[in-house]
Amino acid sequence: MINVGIDSGATLRYGRVVRLIDLQIIGTELAVRWDDKTETFVPLEILRRRCPCAACQGETDVMGQVHRGPDIPLTEESFRLVRVSPVGGYGLQPVWGDGHSTGIFSFDYLRRIDPQS
Ligand SMILES: [Zn+2]
Questions:
Q1: Digit-coded pLDDT (tens) for 17-46
Q2: Which listed site, 53, 85, 92, 112, has its alpha carbon 20 to 30 Å from 23?
Q3: Distance 102 CA to ligand 1 centre (A)
Protein backbone atom coordinates (compact mmCIF):
# COMPACT_ATOMS: atom_id res chain seq x y z
CA MET A 1 0.00 0.00 0.00
CA ILE A 2 1.45 3.33 -1.03
CA ASN A 3 0.19 6.46 0.59
CA VAL A 4 0.24 9.06 -2.15
CA GLY A 5 -0.13 11.83 0.35
CA ILE A 6 -2.14 14.95 -0.15
CA ASP A 7 -1.39 18.29 1.34
CA SER A 8 -3.54 18.21 4.45
CA GLY A 9 -3.72 21.99 4.39
CA ALA A 10 -5.42 21.99 1.02
CA THR A 11 -9.14 22.48 0.99
CA LEU A 12 -10.43 19.79 -1.28
CA ARG A 13 -14.07 20.17 -1.96
CA TYR A 14 -16.57 18.47 -4.20
CA GLY A 15 -19.28 21.03 -4.66
CA ARG A 16 -20.03 22.12 -1.14
CA VAL A 17 -20.92 18.64 -0.04
CA VAL A 18 -18.16 16.11 -0.42
CA ARG A 19 -14.54 16.47 0.59
CA LEU A 20 -11.74 14.16 -0.25
CA ILE A 21 -10.43 12.61 2.93
CA ASP A 22 -7.88 10.09 1.80
CA LEU A 23 -6.16 8.94 -1.32
CA GLN A 24 -4.14 5.76 -1.67
CA ILE A 25 -2.85 3.43 -4.30
CA ILE A 26 -3.77 -0.09 -3.29
CA GLY A 27 -2.24 -2.62 -5.65
CA THR A 28 -3.28 -1.44 -9.09
CA GLU A 29 -6.18 0.69 -7.94
CA LEU A 30 -6.60 4.24 -6.83
CA ALA A 31 -8.72 4.30 -3.69
CA VAL A 32 -10.36 7.57 -2.71
CA ARG A 33 -12.30 8.08 0.47
CA TRP A 34 -14.86 10.88 0.60
CA ASP A 35 -16.33 12.50 3.66
CA ASP A 36 -19.83 11.28 2.82
CA LYS A 37 -18.52 7.83 3.83
CA THR A 38 -18.34 6.57 0.26
CA GLU A 39 -15.22 5.30 -1.44
CA THR A 40 -14.22 5.26 -5.06
CA PHE A 41 -11.95 2.58 -6.47
CA VAL A 42 -10.62 3.05 -9.96
CA PRO A 43 -8.11 0.68 -11.56
CA LEU A 44 -5.11 2.73 -12.64
CA GLU A 45 -5.38 1.44 -16.19
CA ILE A 46 -8.96 2.69 -16.46
CA LEU A 47 -7.99 5.97 -14.86
CA ARG A 48 -5.29 6.49 -17.47
CA ARG A 49 -7.51 5.44 -20.36
CA ARG A 50 -10.16 7.92 -19.22
CA CYS A 51 -7.64 10.73 -18.95
CA PRO A 52 -9.70 13.80 -19.79
CA CYS A 53 -6.91 15.90 -21.31
CA ALA A 54 -7.08 17.13 -24.88
CA ALA A 55 -4.19 14.95 -26.03
CA CYS A 56 -5.97 11.78 -24.86
CA GLN A 57 -9.58 12.62 -25.59
CA GLY A 58 -9.25 15.15 -28.38
CA GLU A 59 -10.71 18.61 -28.60
CA THR A 60 -14.09 19.41 -30.08
CA ASP A 61 -14.17 22.35 -32.48
CA VAL A 62 -17.13 24.68 -33.11
CA MET A 63 -18.39 22.32 -35.82
CA GLY A 64 -18.59 19.52 -33.28
CA GLN A 65 -15.72 17.60 -34.81
CA VAL A 66 -13.24 15.95 -32.54
CA HIS A 67 -9.58 16.53 -33.24
CA ARG A 68 -7.11 14.21 -31.61
CA GLY A 69 -3.40 14.55 -31.46
CA PRO A 70 -1.21 11.68 -32.56
CA ASP A 71 -1.98 8.55 -30.55
CA ILE A 72 0.10 8.34 -27.45
CA PRO A 73 1.44 4.80 -27.22
CA LEU A 74 0.54 3.35 -23.83
CA THR A 75 3.05 1.14 -22.10
CA GLU A 76 3.24 -0.47 -18.68
CA GLU A 77 4.76 2.80 -17.42
CA SER A 78 1.66 4.65 -18.63
CA PHE A 79 -0.41 2.88 -16.00
CA ARG A 80 2.02 3.44 -13.15
CA LEU A 81 1.00 6.34 -10.95
CA VAL A 82 3.96 8.36 -9.71
CA ARG A 83 2.04 10.88 -7.66
CA VAL A 84 -1.19 12.81 -7.48
CA SER A 85 -1.46 16.52 -6.90
CA PRO A 86 -4.62 18.27 -5.71
CA VAL A 87 -5.91 20.90 -8.13
CA GLY A 88 -7.72 23.97 -6.88
CA GLY A 89 -9.87 22.09 -4.40
CA TYR A 90 -11.97 20.40 -7.07
CA GLY A 91 -9.80 17.80 -8.69
CA LEU A 92 -6.68 15.69 -8.91
CA GLN A 93 -3.82 15.73 -11.37
CA PRO A 94 -2.06 12.36 -11.67
CA VAL A 95 1.53 12.12 -12.80
CA TRP A 96 2.14 8.89 -14.71
CA GLY A 97 5.26 6.80 -15.09
CA ASP A 98 5.64 7.80 -18.74
CA GLY A 99 5.67 11.48 -17.78
CA HIS A 100 2.10 12.25 -18.83
CA SER A 101 0.49 14.69 -16.42
CA THR A 102 -1.85 17.01 -18.29
CA GLY A 103 -5.09 15.32 -17.28
CA ILE A 104 -7.08 16.90 -14.48
CA PHE A 105 -9.73 14.66 -12.98
CA SER A 106 -12.46 16.60 -11.23
CA PHE A 107 -13.86 14.85 -8.17
CA ASP A 108 -17.18 14.64 -9.98
CA TYR A 109 -15.56 12.89 -12.96
CA LEU A 110 -13.56 10.63 -10.69
CA ARG A 111 -16.68 9.47 -8.90
CA ARG A 112 -18.40 8.81 -12.20
CA ILE A 113 -15.68 6.56 -13.58
CA ASP A 114 -15.76 4.24 -10.57
CA PRO A 115 -16.51 0.94 -12.34
CA GLN A 116 -18.24 -0.37 -9.21
CA SER A 117 -20.93 2.28 -9.20
ZN1 LIG B 1 -4.13 12.68 -21.08
A1: 578 899 999 999 999 999 889 999 999 999
A2: 53
A3: 6
With CA atoms as reference, report the closest residue to 86 among 17, 29, 18, 7: 7
Do residues 31 and 25 touch, judged by C-beta distance below 8 A? yes
40 occurs within a structural domain: yes
CB atoms under 10 Å from CB of 30, counted, come to 23
Grade residue 84 by pLDDT with cuts at 50, 70 and 90. Answer: very high
- pTM value is 0.76
C-alpha 103 – ligand 1 centre gap (Å): 5
Domain span holding position 85: 2-112
CA atoms within 13 A on the CB side of 82: 11
Tell me the CA–centroid distance for residue 58 and ligand 1, in Å: 9
Could you tell me the distance, in angstroms and rounded to a whole number, from the CA of residue 16 to the centre of ligand 1?
Answer: 27
How many angstroms does the Cα of residue 10 sit away from the middle of ligand 1?
24
**CA 100 to centroid of ligand 1, rounded, Å:** 7
The CATH number that applies at residue 9 is 3.30.2020.30
